[in-house]
Design a protein that fits this description.
By secondary structure, the chain is α/β, with parallel strands linked by helices. The protein has helices at residues 2-28, 37-49, 109-125, 148-154, 214-225, 227-232, 270-290, 310-324, 342-345, 378-396; strands at 53-58, 62-68, 76-82, 133-139, 165-176, 180-182, 185-188, 192-199, 203-204, 239-247, 254-255, 258-267, 294-301, 306-308, 329-331, 350-358.
Length: 397
Protein backbone atom coordinates (compact mmCIF):
# COMPACT_ATOMS: atom_id res chain seq x y z
CA UNK A 1 0.00 0.00 0.00
CA UNK A 2 2.92 2.35 0.53
CA UNK A 3 3.64 2.29 -3.20
CA UNK A 4 -0.01 3.09 -4.01
CA UNK A 5 -0.04 5.92 -1.48
CA UNK A 6 3.08 7.36 -3.08
CA UNK A 7 1.45 7.10 -6.50
CA UNK A 8 -1.69 8.90 -5.32
CA UNK A 9 0.34 11.70 -3.74
CA UNK A 10 2.40 12.05 -6.89
CA UNK A 11 -0.70 12.20 -9.10
CA UNK A 12 -2.47 14.65 -6.75
CA UNK A 13 0.53 16.98 -7.02
CA UNK A 14 0.69 16.50 -10.79
CA UNK A 15 -3.02 17.27 -11.29
CA UNK A 16 -3.15 20.07 -8.73
CA UNK A 17 -2.88 23.02 -11.15
CA UNK A 18 -5.60 21.61 -13.38
CA UNK A 19 -7.95 21.06 -10.44
CA UNK A 20 -7.31 24.57 -9.08
CA UNK A 21 -8.24 25.98 -12.49
CA UNK A 22 -11.38 23.83 -12.56
CA UNK A 23 -12.37 25.04 -9.10
CA UNK A 24 -11.90 28.65 -10.18
CA UNK A 25 -13.94 28.16 -13.34
CA UNK A 26 -16.77 26.62 -11.32
CA UNK A 27 -16.49 29.33 -8.68
CA UNK A 28 -16.76 32.12 -11.26
CA UNK A 29 -19.89 30.57 -12.79
CA UNK A 30 -22.11 29.49 -9.89
CA UNK A 31 -25.64 28.15 -10.34
CA UNK A 32 -28.47 27.63 -7.87
CA UNK A 33 -30.08 24.31 -6.95
CA UNK A 34 -31.53 22.20 -9.78
CA UNK A 35 -30.30 24.87 -12.23
CA UNK A 36 -26.68 23.69 -12.43
CA UNK A 37 -26.87 23.08 -16.18
CA UNK A 38 -23.52 24.60 -17.20
CA UNK A 39 -21.84 23.07 -14.16
CA UNK A 40 -23.29 19.69 -15.10
CA UNK A 41 -21.98 20.03 -18.67
CA UNK A 42 -18.51 20.97 -17.40
CA UNK A 43 -18.35 17.93 -15.13
CA UNK A 44 -19.75 15.60 -17.79
CA UNK A 45 -17.28 16.80 -20.43
CA UNK A 46 -14.32 16.63 -18.06
CA UNK A 47 -15.15 13.04 -17.05
CA UNK A 48 -15.48 12.06 -20.71
CA UNK A 49 -12.09 13.67 -21.31
CA UNK A 50 -10.74 11.37 -18.58
CA UNK A 51 -12.30 8.39 -20.46
CA UNK A 52 -14.67 7.62 -17.59
CA UNK A 53 -18.17 6.21 -18.27
CA UNK A 54 -20.59 8.99 -17.34
CA UNK A 55 -24.28 9.90 -17.49
CA UNK A 56 -25.99 13.21 -16.80
CA UNK A 57 -29.58 14.34 -16.34
CA UNK A 58 -30.23 12.45 -13.10
CA UNK A 59 -32.41 14.65 -10.87
CA UNK A 60 -32.31 17.24 -13.69
CA UNK A 61 -28.65 18.25 -13.45
CA UNK A 62 -26.97 15.43 -11.55
CA UNK A 63 -24.04 13.49 -13.00
CA UNK A 64 -23.11 9.87 -12.24
CA UNK A 65 -19.96 8.12 -13.44
CA UNK A 66 -18.35 4.71 -12.97
CA UNK A 67 -14.69 3.78 -12.74
CA UNK A 68 -14.37 0.03 -13.18
CA UNK A 69 -11.35 -1.84 -11.93
CA UNK A 70 -10.62 -5.52 -12.33
CA UNK A 71 -13.59 -7.74 -11.37
CA UNK A 72 -15.84 -4.63 -11.30
CA UNK A 73 -18.79 -6.30 -9.53
CA UNK A 74 -16.77 -7.42 -6.51
CA UNK A 75 -17.35 -4.27 -4.46
CA UNK A 76 -18.63 -0.75 -5.14
CA UNK A 77 -17.62 2.43 -3.31
CA UNK A 78 -19.51 5.68 -3.91
CA UNK A 79 -18.00 9.17 -3.64
CA UNK A 80 -20.31 12.20 -3.56
CA UNK A 81 -19.94 15.93 -4.22
CA UNK A 82 -22.69 18.57 -4.22
CA UNK A 83 -23.01 21.15 -6.98
CA UNK A 84 -25.22 24.12 -6.12
CA UNK A 85 -24.32 27.65 -5.04
CA UNK A 86 -26.08 30.10 -2.72
CA UNK A 87 -28.08 33.32 -3.33
CA UNK A 88 -25.28 35.56 -1.98
CA UNK A 89 -23.41 38.42 -3.68
CA UNK A 90 -19.67 37.84 -3.47
CA UNK A 91 -17.46 40.60 -2.02
CA UNK A 92 -14.04 38.94 -2.52
CA UNK A 93 -11.56 40.84 -4.70
CA UNK A 94 -10.22 37.87 -6.67
CA UNK A 95 -9.66 37.12 -10.35
CA UNK A 96 -12.22 34.31 -10.28
CA UNK A 97 -14.94 36.23 -8.43
CA UNK A 98 -18.50 35.15 -9.24
CA UNK A 99 -19.71 36.53 -12.55
CA UNK A 100 -23.33 35.94 -11.58
CA UNK A 101 -24.85 38.78 -9.57
CA UNK A 102 -26.44 37.53 -6.38
CA UNK A 103 -25.10 33.95 -6.70
CA UNK A 104 -21.92 32.61 -5.09
CA UNK A 105 -20.21 29.38 -4.10
CA UNK A 106 -20.20 30.42 -0.45
CA UNK A 107 -20.36 26.89 0.94
CA UNK A 108 -17.42 25.32 -0.86
CA UNK A 109 -19.31 23.12 -3.29
CA UNK A 110 -16.88 24.29 -5.99
CA UNK A 111 -14.12 22.68 -3.90
CA UNK A 112 -16.16 19.50 -3.47
CA UNK A 113 -16.71 19.14 -7.22
CA UNK A 114 -13.15 19.96 -8.21
CA UNK A 115 -11.74 17.61 -5.58
CA UNK A 116 -13.94 14.76 -6.76
CA UNK A 117 -12.90 15.37 -10.36
CA UNK A 118 -9.29 15.17 -9.19
CA UNK A 119 -10.02 11.95 -7.30
CA UNK A 120 -11.70 10.57 -10.41
CA UNK A 121 -8.67 11.28 -12.57
CA UNK A 122 -6.33 9.70 -10.00
CA UNK A 123 -8.47 6.59 -9.54
CA UNK A 124 -8.99 6.12 -13.25
CA UNK A 125 -5.21 6.21 -13.69
CA UNK A 126 -4.92 3.42 -11.10
CA UNK A 127 -7.88 1.24 -12.12
CA UNK A 128 -5.60 -1.69 -12.92
CA UNK A 129 -4.49 -1.66 -9.27
CA UNK A 130 -7.84 -2.53 -7.64
CA UNK A 131 -10.82 -4.85 -7.91
CA UNK A 132 -14.34 -3.46 -7.86
CA UNK A 133 -15.83 -0.16 -8.98
CA UNK A 134 -16.11 3.44 -7.86
CA UNK A 135 -19.36 5.32 -8.40
CA UNK A 136 -18.97 9.09 -8.65
CA UNK A 137 -22.05 11.09 -7.65
CA UNK A 138 -22.25 14.80 -8.49
CA UNK A 139 -25.46 15.86 -6.78
CA UNK A 140 -27.55 18.98 -7.39
CA UNK A 141 -29.33 21.17 -4.86
CA UNK A 142 -27.94 20.29 -1.45
CA UNK A 143 -28.85 23.75 -0.18
CA UNK A 144 -32.49 23.76 -1.18
CA UNK A 145 -35.13 21.46 0.30
CA UNK A 146 -36.13 18.74 -0.63
CA UNK A 147 -32.48 18.41 -1.66
CA UNK A 148 -30.95 16.61 -4.59
CA UNK A 149 -29.93 13.53 -2.61
CA UNK A 150 -33.49 12.32 -2.05
CA UNK A 151 -34.35 12.94 -5.70
CA UNK A 152 -31.26 11.12 -6.99
CA UNK A 153 -32.02 8.18 -4.70
CA UNK A 154 -35.59 8.01 -6.04
CA UNK A 155 -34.13 7.98 -9.55
CA UNK A 156 -31.90 5.01 -8.70
CA UNK A 157 -28.47 6.48 -7.97
CA UNK A 158 -27.88 3.84 -5.28
CA UNK A 159 -28.83 0.96 -7.56
CA UNK A 160 -27.35 -0.79 -10.60
CA UNK A 161 -24.91 -1.22 -8.97
CA UNK A 162 -25.69 -0.58 -5.31
CA UNK A 163 -22.66 0.82 -3.47
CA UNK A 164 -21.40 -1.01 -0.40
CA UNK A 165 -20.35 2.30 1.21
CA UNK A 166 -20.48 6.01 0.43
CA UNK A 167 -18.14 8.87 1.38
CA UNK A 168 -18.50 12.62 1.22
CA UNK A 169 -16.42 15.58 2.32
CA UNK A 170 -17.26 19.18 3.18
CA UNK A 171 -15.02 22.21 3.60
CA UNK A 172 -14.44 23.37 7.19
CA UNK A 173 -13.27 26.98 7.79
CA UNK A 174 -12.45 26.26 11.44
CA UNK A 175 -9.70 23.81 10.49
CA UNK A 176 -6.37 24.59 8.82
CA UNK A 177 -5.75 23.40 5.28
CA UNK A 178 -4.01 20.04 5.26
CA UNK A 179 -6.16 18.66 8.06
CA UNK A 180 -9.51 16.89 8.21
CA UNK A 181 -12.12 16.61 10.96
CA UNK A 182 -14.12 13.45 11.56
CA UNK A 183 -16.87 12.25 13.91
CA UNK A 184 -18.18 8.72 14.47
CA UNK A 185 -21.95 8.27 14.85
CA UNK A 186 -24.43 11.16 14.98
CA UNK A 187 -22.75 14.11 13.31
CA UNK A 188 -25.11 16.73 11.81
CA UNK A 189 -28.63 17.62 12.93
CA UNK A 190 -32.01 17.09 11.34
CA UNK A 191 -33.55 20.37 10.24
CA UNK A 192 -37.21 21.39 10.08
CA UNK A 193 -38.68 24.78 9.21
CA UNK A 194 -41.37 26.36 11.40
CA UNK A 195 -44.02 28.73 10.03
CA UNK A 196 -46.42 30.37 12.49
CA UNK A 197 -49.22 32.81 11.65
CA UNK A 198 -50.51 34.55 14.77
CA UNK A 199 -53.98 36.01 14.26
CA UNK A 200 -55.63 38.70 16.36
CA UNK A 201 -57.64 41.85 15.81
CA UNK A 202 -55.85 44.94 14.63
CA UNK A 203 -56.58 48.54 15.41
CA UNK A 204 -55.25 51.80 16.77
CA UNK A 205 -52.14 51.58 18.93
CA UNK A 206 -53.67 54.14 21.28
CA UNK A 207 -56.68 51.93 22.05
CA UNK A 208 -55.10 48.50 22.73
CA UNK A 209 -58.06 47.43 24.90
CA UNK A 210 -60.21 47.30 21.77
CA UNK A 211 -57.75 45.01 19.92
CA UNK A 212 -56.32 41.52 20.20
CA UNK A 213 -52.63 42.29 19.72
CA UNK A 214 -50.87 39.63 17.59
CA UNK A 215 -47.50 41.33 18.15
CA UNK A 216 -47.78 40.76 21.90
CA UNK A 217 -49.05 37.22 21.37
CA UNK A 218 -46.16 36.47 18.98
CA UNK A 219 -43.68 37.75 21.56
CA UNK A 220 -45.06 35.41 24.21
CA UNK A 221 -45.02 32.48 21.78
CA UNK A 222 -41.35 33.05 20.90
CA UNK A 223 -40.34 33.30 24.56
CA UNK A 224 -42.56 30.40 25.61
CA UNK A 225 -41.27 28.05 22.95
CA UNK A 226 -37.71 28.46 24.18
CA UNK A 227 -38.75 26.31 27.12
CA UNK A 228 -39.27 23.47 24.67
CA UNK A 229 -35.48 23.07 24.70
CA UNK A 230 -34.76 23.99 28.32
CA UNK A 231 -37.59 21.99 29.93
CA UNK A 232 -38.88 19.46 27.39
CA UNK A 233 -35.93 18.26 25.30
CA UNK A 234 -34.11 15.29 26.84
CA UNK A 235 -30.81 16.76 28.08
CA UNK A 236 -28.82 14.03 26.30
CA UNK A 237 -30.28 14.94 22.88
CA UNK A 238 -28.82 18.14 21.37
CA UNK A 239 -31.68 20.42 20.29
CA UNK A 240 -31.77 23.94 18.85
CA UNK A 241 -34.87 26.09 18.35
CA UNK A 242 -34.29 29.44 16.65
CA UNK A 243 -36.54 32.08 15.08
CA UNK A 244 -35.05 34.29 12.41
CA UNK A 245 -37.98 36.13 10.85
CA UNK A 246 -40.91 38.11 12.28
CA UNK A 247 -43.29 40.02 10.02
CA UNK A 248 -45.94 42.31 11.50
CA UNK A 249 -47.18 44.81 8.95
CA UNK A 250 -48.30 47.48 11.40
CA UNK A 251 -47.03 50.98 12.08
CA UNK A 252 -46.01 52.98 15.14
CA UNK A 253 -49.68 53.53 15.92
CA UNK A 254 -51.26 50.59 14.06
CA UNK A 255 -51.60 47.11 15.53
CA UNK A 256 -51.82 44.59 12.65
CA UNK A 257 -54.31 41.77 12.31
CA UNK A 258 -51.62 39.11 12.13
CA UNK A 259 -47.93 38.42 12.63
CA UNK A 260 -45.87 35.79 10.83
CA UNK A 261 -42.98 34.01 12.54
CA UNK A 262 -40.43 31.72 10.86
CA UNK A 263 -37.78 29.56 12.48
CA UNK A 264 -36.07 26.19 12.64
CA UNK A 265 -35.79 23.23 14.99
CA UNK A 266 -32.82 20.86 14.81
CA UNK A 267 -32.08 17.71 16.75
CA UNK A 268 -30.65 14.15 16.68
CA UNK A 269 -33.52 11.80 17.53
CA UNK A 270 -36.49 10.96 15.30
CA UNK A 271 -38.90 10.19 18.16
CA UNK A 272 -38.11 13.43 19.96
CA UNK A 273 -38.23 15.29 16.64
CA UNK A 274 -41.84 14.17 16.08
CA UNK A 275 -42.79 14.89 19.70
CA UNK A 276 -41.27 18.38 19.49
CA UNK A 277 -43.40 19.19 16.46
CA UNK A 278 -46.55 18.29 18.41
CA UNK A 279 -45.45 20.37 21.41
CA UNK A 280 -44.70 23.41 19.24
CA UNK A 281 -48.19 23.28 17.75
CA UNK A 282 -49.88 22.77 21.12
CA UNK A 283 -47.90 25.48 22.92
CA UNK A 284 -48.32 28.06 20.16
CA UNK A 285 -52.06 27.47 19.98
CA UNK A 286 -52.52 27.52 23.75
CA UNK A 287 -50.60 30.76 24.20
CA UNK A 288 -52.49 32.45 21.36
CA UNK A 289 -55.86 31.30 22.66
CA UNK A 290 -55.06 32.52 26.17
CA UNK A 291 -54.84 36.06 24.72
CA UNK A 292 -58.00 35.65 22.64
CA UNK A 293 -56.20 35.04 19.37
CA UNK A 294 -55.23 31.99 17.33
CA UNK A 295 -52.16 30.55 15.66
CA UNK A 296 -51.81 28.57 12.45
CA UNK A 297 -48.83 26.21 12.65
CA UNK A 298 -47.01 24.60 9.74
CA UNK A 299 -43.79 22.63 10.25
CA UNK A 300 -42.00 21.55 7.07
CA UNK A 301 -39.97 18.39 7.59
CA UNK A 302 -36.44 18.86 6.29
CA UNK A 303 -33.37 16.65 6.20
CA UNK A 304 -32.80 13.85 8.74
CA UNK A 305 -29.66 13.86 10.86
CA UNK A 306 -26.35 12.67 9.41
CA UNK A 307 -25.13 9.40 10.90
CA UNK A 308 -21.57 8.22 10.27
CA UNK A 309 -21.45 4.44 10.35
CA UNK A 310 -19.07 3.35 13.10
CA UNK A 311 -17.06 0.73 11.20
CA UNK A 312 -16.87 2.73 7.96
CA UNK A 313 -15.84 5.89 9.80
CA UNK A 314 -13.20 4.12 11.88
CA UNK A 315 -11.72 2.77 8.67
CA UNK A 316 -11.81 6.22 7.05
CA UNK A 317 -10.12 7.72 10.10
CA UNK A 318 -7.36 5.14 9.93
CA UNK A 319 -6.90 5.66 6.19
CA UNK A 320 -6.69 9.41 6.75
CA UNK A 321 -4.04 9.00 9.45
CA UNK A 322 -1.99 6.86 7.08
CA UNK A 323 -2.29 9.41 4.28
CA UNK A 324 -2.07 12.73 6.17
CA UNK A 325 -0.34 11.81 9.40
CA UNK A 326 -2.05 11.35 12.77
CA UNK A 327 -1.58 15.02 13.74
CA UNK A 328 -3.67 16.10 10.76
CA UNK A 329 -6.75 14.01 11.59
CA UNK A 330 -8.86 15.80 14.20
CA UNK A 331 -11.84 14.54 16.20
CA UNK A 332 -14.70 17.05 15.93
CA UNK A 333 -18.03 17.37 17.72
CA UNK A 334 -21.63 17.24 16.55
CA UNK A 335 -22.87 20.14 14.45
CA UNK A 336 -26.35 21.67 14.46
CA UNK A 337 -26.07 22.46 10.75
CA UNK A 338 -27.70 20.04 8.32
CA UNK A 339 -26.81 18.09 5.17
CA UNK A 340 -28.89 16.04 2.78
CA UNK A 341 -26.00 13.55 2.62
CA UNK A 342 -28.02 12.09 5.52
CA UNK A 343 -30.36 10.37 3.05
CA UNK A 344 -27.57 8.19 1.65
CA UNK A 345 -26.65 7.05 5.16
CA UNK A 346 -30.20 5.85 5.75
CA UNK A 347 -29.72 3.28 2.99
CA UNK A 348 -26.03 2.29 2.96
CA UNK A 349 -23.13 2.69 5.43
CA UNK A 350 -21.81 6.23 5.09
CA UNK A 351 -19.07 8.56 6.26
CA UNK A 352 -19.10 12.34 5.95
CA UNK A 353 -15.99 14.22 7.05
CA UNK A 354 -14.68 17.80 7.06
CA UNK A 355 -11.85 19.18 4.93
CA UNK A 356 -9.76 21.98 6.45
CA UNK A 357 -9.48 25.12 4.30
CA UNK A 358 -8.34 27.80 6.77
CA UNK A 359 -5.22 29.94 6.31
CA UNK A 360 -5.02 32.78 8.81
CA UNK A 361 -1.79 34.23 7.40
CA UNK A 362 -3.52 34.67 4.03
CA UNK A 363 -6.67 36.08 5.62
CA UNK A 364 -8.75 33.04 4.65
CA UNK A 365 -10.91 32.85 7.76
CA UNK A 366 -14.49 33.68 6.68
CA UNK A 367 -17.28 31.36 7.68
CA UNK A 368 -19.57 29.38 5.41
CA UNK A 369 -22.52 31.18 3.81
CA UNK A 370 -20.82 34.59 3.94
CA UNK A 371 -20.03 36.97 1.07
CA UNK A 372 -16.29 36.88 1.83
CA UNK A 373 -15.95 33.10 2.01
CA UNK A 374 -12.87 31.64 0.30
CA UNK A 375 -10.51 28.69 0.72
CA UNK A 376 -6.82 27.89 0.84
CA UNK A 377 -6.59 26.07 -2.47
CA UNK A 378 -3.89 23.72 -1.19
CA UNK A 379 -6.88 21.92 0.37
CA UNK A 380 -7.75 20.69 -3.13
CA UNK A 381 -4.62 18.55 -3.22
CA UNK A 382 -5.49 17.15 0.20
CA UNK A 383 -9.13 16.61 -0.74
CA UNK A 384 -8.63 14.79 -4.04
CA UNK A 385 -5.76 12.67 -2.79
CA UNK A 386 -7.43 11.61 0.45
CA UNK A 387 -10.73 10.69 -1.19
CA UNK A 388 -8.89 8.61 -3.79
CA UNK A 389 -6.86 6.93 -1.02
CA UNK A 390 -10.00 6.11 1.00
CA UNK A 391 -11.78 4.63 -2.02
CA UNK A 392 -8.78 2.59 -3.08
CA UNK A 393 -8.30 1.21 0.44
CA UNK A 394 -11.95 0.21 0.63
CA UNK A 395 -11.57 -1.81 -2.56
CA UNK A 396 -8.25 -3.50 -1.87
CA UNK A 397 -8.90 -4.27 1.83
Amino acid sequence: MQELKDQIKKLAAEYFSEIVNLRREIHANPELGFKEYKTSDLIYNKLREYNIDVKQGIAKTGVVAMIKGKNPDKKVVALRADMDALPITETNDIDYKSKIEGVMHACGHDVHMASLLGSAKILNSLKDEFEGSIKLIFQPSEEKYPGGASVMIKEGVLENPKPDTIYGQHVYPELEAGKIGIKIGKFMASTDEIFLTVKGKGGHGGTPHKNIDPVLIASHIIVGLQQLVSRNAPPYIPTVLSFGRIIGEGKTNIIPDEVKIEGTIRTFDENWRAEAHQKIEKMANSIAESFGGSCDVFIDNGYPYVFNDELVTIRAKNYAREYLGEQNVVDIDVRMTAEDFAYYGQIIPACFYRLGIRNESAGIVSNLHTSGFNVDESSLETGMGLMAWIALNELVS
